Amino acid sequence: MEYNKRYRRDRGMNRRRHVPSSNNSFVAEEASSSDEQLRKRRRRRNRNNALRSNRGMTEVDHSTNEQQLSHGNAIVEESDIPGFAYDSVTKRYYRVQPQSSGPNIGFRESDLRGIRQHKSFMAERERCCAKSCPSVSWLPKIMQNRELRGSNISRLTRLVTEGALRGVRKEPSYVQKGYTDIEALHSCHYMDISVDGKTIVGCWSVKRRRDEGWRDTCGARIICFKVTAGFFFFFNALSWKIESECRSKFGLKIRSSTYCANLIKSNLMDICVEPINDNVTCALYVTTQTVVTMHNRFSTLSRVCIEPVAEFSSVYDSTELHLPSYNMTWTCQEYVRAIAFNRNRMEIGIGLEENAMLLNISTEQTTRISGLEKGVMSLTFSADGNLLFMGVMGDNVVCSDLRMSNRDVVATYNDTKNVGWLKALRTKPDMLVTEDHVGIIKFWDIRMRKPQFKIEDNINPYNKTPMHLEKDERILFSATSDGITRAWSTYNGEKLCEFPSHGPRNLSRKPKLAYASNLGGLSGNAAILIATGSDFHVHELTLTLVIISSMSYSSGKAYHKDNRNI
């Protein structure tokens, strides 16, 4: 039996394959005409493929792969050529078919009609949203329409506060003298204002009055002052002018309170006023003094004290205020430079000569932070109380995780040597503010350990520059030895204002400042208080109101501004 061979087409693999055949009708001479038959089959197959493609889409250059790519992206545009659609992916024109069937779905008239309807619907929706139609408007659009100038309430409050600081006057609005019954105030070491704006607490160096028969001994005392408001009416223009020079427009007076803590024969190293709980606020301070031991040697004795501040607390019962948890004294024979309070863990951070220490006020147990071996100049706790940041003498700022058993250093912030003041923000838990001895203020990202921005126009000749961060942590203040008080925004580091803080004759005294948005308990009565010696320099802030009226035009929006002083 003779086997003849012929070639068959494999459509799946698009190649010829050699298949043996047992058909006796083929002879050897027919093998020579196989090439001509293959060419005929190829031409017939091409005609059939062209007819199939005309059912759905006819491309100008018959590119099937590009058609499938275009279908996957489904980017169709109506072209300026009648009867064709433009594909922005393949950058080719395709003929629009009235009907389509089969697996290759092309560009049809119904597709373009749907695109036109969708565009018309979106245009009608935007027009309805512009008219605040409740049936079509969506929730973010409604909230944005209710916001002033497209900003939320927190941003609006920040802009109002920054605008008031930009218009601060060079000269104080009025100056009041702080005094007590038996002592004269010499210089201020610390000052803060309560949340309601009615109480001022601070630490002053005091001197005994000579008319009392005492010697001119010096010491320090924690004193509270009450800010009282009264409205005075004067019918005489001359008397009104004289009284307005020493009083504010609301008739505010600063009078001393009964609370005071005696710090005679001690040097105040650091002080802060922090809430222990929701009801009681305590003053936390550390003092040092030189004592003579029983072996006739000089030694340093440091005391860390906690005392309640009744004027800042909501509890007035003396029995509760005298509880041991609110009244404690801890002594050590080491030099203490800084303290901080951790409300979440009820611990006090103490900066010593070679390391830091944690003191639990409930159990009075102490825990040392190892791995430093250098003096701690400043420290602060994070908002959740799990991290402790320490400014090390001659080295960078380090961070210790209090959740770990050994409490080792877990992070180091480079280029922050000799940081005398640092603060972890409560409103921004991932931000840390540092100020070194050169005067450079940096705002750090705790997670990335990189500064977001820095302030270089600050002057710091002290070991610790008088810095003040307002209650809402929007504004940072600094009073330096050149007699200038400066304010910056914690949002972007922009300098908002600078004005003289005290006279050139009192450069030796360090001014302390505080900011209150409701001085005297009057909402909106924002003011800056600067304590220099026994005087309170009050700079009232005048709000500049910017009224914006929007006028809509067909081409866009135009805004008209009107500035008014309140």
From TrEMBL:
It comes from Wuchereria bancrofti. The chain crosses the membrane at residues 218-240. This is WD_REPEATS_REGION domain-containing protein. The keyword Transcription does not apply. The keyword Metal-binding does not apply. Pfam families: Beta-prop_DCAF4. GO terms for cellular component: Cul4-RING E3 ubiquitin ligase complex. It comes from the Eukaryota. Keywords: Membrane, Repeat, Transmembrane, Transmembrane helix, WD repeat.
